[in-house]
Amino acid sequence: MRYLYITLLVCFAVIFVSCGQDTESRDDVPPQQPSMMPRSDDAIYPQAGVRAEPTLTDRNYWTRIEWYRNPEDDLAGYRVRRWAETTNSGEAPVVADLAMNVQLPDNFVLFWIDHGNDQLGDPANLLAPDNQGITHGYWWQVQAYDTAGNRSEWSDSVYYRMIYNPYNLSVQGTGNDTQVMWNYPIGGSSTYLSFYKIRVYSEWYGIDSLIWDYDVQLYESSNALTIGVNGAFTPMTHDCTYVWQLNAISYVASETNDLPLAGSAMYTTFIYQE
C-alpha cells in the first residue's frame, strides 16, 4: 500500500509539471536591439533618419525618427521614449507604443512622427522653441517587444531640435512666373538659421518626382523666389499637383559630426497652370 501511495504521488507530480510548468516551450528570448537609421545630410533627397517633418501650419513642430525593422518573426511592436537635453534617459517617459500592422506597417524601414505631445498623449507642443526663440533639443530611443512580451535593449539615441518655422508660406503666379513667398522672424531663433532648402516635387513623391532643389541664403523677414531661378530645374506638367517644401536649416556642431541637427519644415501644395 505504501508503494502504491508513492507511485500515485510521482504520477501527480509528473502531470503537474508537464501541464503547468512547460519551461521548454516558454519564450524568454528578447528581440535584438533596434538599429536607428543614420541621419542623411540635408542635401540628400529623400532625406533619412531623424529630421523635421514638414507641416502645413507654422504652429506645428514635428520631428520624424526612423529605424530598421527587427528580423524576429514574433515581433509585436516598438516603444519610443523621449527626453530633453537638460535631463537624462533615466527620466525619459515612454511617449509611444506602436503595434506592428496597426500603427506601423510591416516595412524594412519604420518611422514615427513626434508631435510633441506629453507622455499621456495630450497636445503640448513640447518640441517648439519658446516665446524668446530659445530652442530645446531632445533625444529619442526605440525598444522592440515580441508577442510574448519580451523587450529588447533600448536603441542608440538620436538627437534633434526645432527652430522657428517659416510662416505665411504660399505660392502665387502661373507658369514660369510661379513664386514661393514666406516670412521668417528676424532676431530670436533666426540667429540659429544657416540657410533655407527649397524643394519642389510632384505630389506622388519619390526620388524621380523632384523637379527643383535649391539652397537659399536669404535672411529677410519677407522672402520671395521664382521657381527655377537657380539650380537644376525640370519643367512642370500642366494641371499636375506639386508640393513646395521649405526647410529652415541650422548647422549645429556636435561631438560626433557637424551635420545640421536643428531645423524646421513647412510645405504647401499648388496646381501648375501655364
Give the total of beta strands. Answer: 15
Q: CATH top level of the largest domain? A: Mainly Beta
Shape: globular
CATH architecture annotation of the largest domain: Sandwich
Query: What gap, in angstroms, lies between the N and C termini?
Result: 103 Å
Q: Averaging pLDDT over every residue, what do you get? A: 85
| Uncertain stretches of 5 or more adjacent residues | 1-21
How many helical elements?
Answer: 1
Domains, number: 2
Helix percent band: under 10%
Major β-sheet strand ordering: 5-4-7-8-15-14-11-12
> According to CATH, what is the topology of the largest domain?
Immunoglobulin-like
**So, the CATH homologous superfamily of the largest domain?**
Immunoglobulins
Q: What is the SS-derived class?
A: mainly beta
> What is the string of SSEs from the N terminus onward?
HEEEEEEEEEEEEEEE
Radius of gyration of CA atoms, rounded to a whole number: 26 Å
Write up what this structure looks like.
There is one protein chain. With 274 residues, this protein is mainly beta. Helix content is 7%, strand content 36%. It folds into 2 domains: 35-162, Sandwich (Immunoglobulin-like); 167-271, Immunoglobulins (Immunoglobulin-like, Sandwich). It has one helix at residues 2-20, and strands at residues 35-36, 51-52, 63-68, 75-84, 94-99, 109-114, 137-146, 158-162, 167-172, 179-183, 195-202, 210-216, 222-226, 241-250, 262-271. The strands form 3 sheets. An 8-stranded mixed sheet has the order 5-4-7-8-15-14-11-12, with no helix packed on it. Strands 1, 2, 3 and 6 form a 4-stranded antiparallel sheet that branches. Mean pLDDT is 85; it is low at 1-21.
